[in-house]
């Protein structure tokens, strides 16, 4: 019923005024503390070191070298012959050369163990957009996706905010390295049914954020079987696939489908992005790869709301179709990330801190539960605050990732120089020493 | 039979994406047989795409003189890393500054914009959808004057669940908005049990190519003030106003009416983009401007789902900060648009076809009523099909824009060379001439029954008139 003279407080939508954007969690609060007092080697050596941002800054030199030698990728060549065509290109199919390059890049990352058809690639402005878009397509408002915990805090917003969809967590435990089990999936499914919620799919991140570990092939098979049994979708967010320290340790859902002759594959959709592997979050390059024709068509149409700048598509088409470059990049990037990981694990171990077993990503999953005053969420938040304000490190508390056990923290290691990482490790070491002395 | 994968959302399986409309079908026909001066001179000429291709040389020469902007350099130093990492949804400050200053310049600096109130989005497509998410619940409605841009059916309704209720405008007053049309639309919404959240206008208008008069703007403001609803002014074509009476922005009217501290001030939102004025639709640069802090805050967070590439933000911040360039571009672009529009209007005149008098946009709103076999939308479709398949021109039928009167077509003039435009006009002229000689021939044949036929014809007009189809 149309109403006249409404009060200003009701004229915005519920979505606009809701808290589902999730920005009030400590995940974001830590960022604020960092923004207010950011560490700088020379100008602010006692500032907060940002270890809550999963950025990859270890391989820019390779990208810059490439660009230095291939100016036509960025300035459209002398006299800009390709400029106008590029500037006009808003076709939601995306630049063919870019899709081909992307598909090829994804194949290289998987060591050629899976094939990708460029015509099944839908381009979106980042994985953030890809995940939201898929949720719009796979779920109605009120429906749910099952997401294994701990998970990326951003999902609370990306999957739920505007879509009206729900997340039902699939609980995991440290006792088996937080691996997903069929039992946990079944439990989550039952919980949803008990709440009268329609489950539409499972959404995985593989390699996992925040665990920094690949999912075992057998676990993936189980998850796929579960999804098939329940006749639901399976979304595999493989945004960190190129950040696995050893190429052979990553199994993509695509490989499993291929091994199964693509039987029942129309329920599977893969999300990818260049924000982590290539370290280009600012360029907004995400993609959905779906084995379901209707999803591809619909996603493509919906991508109108979130197209990738054609200028950026052009740049990356050039870069990623240079196979020699990409092969070298992938290999070197893996090595550098592995080195960083080993450095932080050793440094933490020296300080008496253990992490869960990791083999991928831009972070490690650190266990500080022995330090908790109380083994509760409150205890964890208290510890987090003291690390933020006393040790001056912004790390991400497990509770913001919906971890079922308190005391775990995600610590990023690839978004700073080696020197800064040393400083951070030293601060942690001192912090642990002080606690030891204090407790004596 | 085992359970087939039928598990997609209602949004995925409905037709609200609107891609089955003639607007898109025409494009498909064009894609199958596109005109090319050399390779396919008898192909279909695309006149259904509102692109601005007239001023690329200005952009290209700027790029050639300023290689740093696209080369990730600032003052000779590489800023590649900083840009690559920059994903702050508040946007690149330099770019926002340059953008709001550009927007002010387009408005003759009669109004100014605060860069803290602007939200960057991947195109106006994203901006309009985002505003719907911020201002309306699923099932609520926005009023839009007809005829309107066919894309709105998808952009405003598809994923948001918002409804559009048309404000019917007619040729009797050059399709201007009247207060009775506004009231009628409001009541129609009520009849359909839809709560109206606001009005959305495109100014300058697509497809009319006209700027809104001060009178209309005042009418709108009074209407939304009285009803306590929002007003969205999509000013995507603001930089394409090439002749008088000139462009009056809604912000100007708000200022004139001293509305700065009133409630309605917070309910007016502007959408902008660089896709039309600068001809850069591929770069996905759109913006929402709002005086309401909550809207700015919510829209900013939502822009996470459609951020502008930092690479592109940087390039354009350099371009738009060059005031010498922008001043020259704005004036030269207008000149060229005006020249093109005149070419088309005069050419159509010679073919006995009139257009709505226009002063903006990349298209003309063309009156082909006299070529219809009957005053119906069926006849409009027939004529449209003939024009696409026989005359080989893709133009947009008024029904796809929800026009209430059959016979109007939107014809674009800025997305092709002058030669191609002249060819298109020639083809149309020949088509009209052939129609004239045909009907003249028929008239001679049936001259004895002429008066009776006229009566019969008149009866069938009234009988066949249909409402524009929801597509």
TrEMBL record, chain A:
Domain (Aminotransferase class I/classII large): residue spans on this chain = 49-428
Concerning CDD domains, the annotation shows: AAT_like (cd00609)
Which biological pathway? Alkene biosynthesis; ethylene biosynthesis via S-adenosyl-L-methionine; ethylene from S-adenosyl-L-methionine: step 1/2
Secretion signal, residue range per the UniProt entry: none
Please give the catalytic activity noted in the UniProt record.
Answer: S-adenosyl-L-methionine = 1-aminocyclopropane-1-carboxylate + S-methyl-5'-thioadenosine + H(+)
> What is the E.C. number?
4.4.1.14
Cited SUPFAM superfamilies: PLP-dependent transferases
Q: Which UniProt keywords apply?
A: Aminotransferase, Ethylene biosynthesis, Fruit ripening, Pyridoxal phosphate, S-adenosyl-L-methionine, Transferase
Q: Which molecular function terms from Gene Ontology are attached? A: 1-aminocyclopropane-1-carboxylate synthase activity; pyridoxal phosphate binding; transaminase activity
**Tell me, which GO biological process terms does this entry list?**
ethylene biosynthetic process; fruit ripening
Domain of life of the organism in this record? Eukaryota
Pfam families from the UniProt entry = Aminotran_1_2
PROSITE patterns, alphabetized: AA_TRANSFER_CLASS_1
Q: Which family does it belong to?
A: Belongs to the class-I pyridoxal-phosphate-dependent aminotransferase family.
On subunit structure and binding partners, the annotation says: Homodimer.
Instruction: Spell out the protein name for this chain.
Output: 1-aminocyclopropane-1-carboxylate synthase
Automatic annotation (TrEMBL), chain B:
Q: What is the lineage of its organism?
A: Eukaryota, Viridiplantae, Streptophyta, Embryophyta, Tracheophyta
Q: Which UniProt keywords apply?
A: Ethylene biosynthesis, Fruit ripening, Lyase, Pyridoxal phosphate, S-adenosyl-L-methionine
The entry's family comment says: Belongs to the class-I pyridoxal-phosphate-dependent aminotransferase family.
**Does the record bear S-adenosyl-L-methionine in its keywords?**
yes
Question: GO BP, one example?
Answer: fruit ripening
User: Source species, please?
Assistant: Salix koriyanagi
Instruction: Supply the name of the protein.
Output: 1-aminocyclopropane-1-carboxylate synthase
> What GO molecular function terms would the record report?
1-aminocyclopropane-1-carboxylate synthase activity; pyridoxal phosphate binding; transaminase activity
Q: Which reaction does it catalyse?
A: S-adenosyl-L-methionine = 1-aminocyclopropane-1-carboxylate + S-methyl-5'-thioadenosine + H(+)
All copies of the Aminotransferase class I/classII large domain together span 45-428
Question: Which PANTHER family does the UniProt record give?
Answer: 1-AMINOCYCLOPROPANE-1-CARBOXYLATE SYNTHASE 9 (PTHR43795:SF10), BIFUNCTIONAL ASPARTATE AMINOTRANSFERASE AND GLUTAMATE/ASPARTATE-PREPHENATE AMINOTRANSFERASE-RELATED (PTHR43795)
